[in-house]
Amino acid sequence: MDSTGIDNLFLAGEWIKTDQNVTTMEGANEGGRYAANGVLLASGYAGPKVKIVELFQAPWWGPFKAADKARYRARLPHALDIADTRWPT
Question: pTM of the full predicted structure?
Answer without folding.
Answer: 0.65
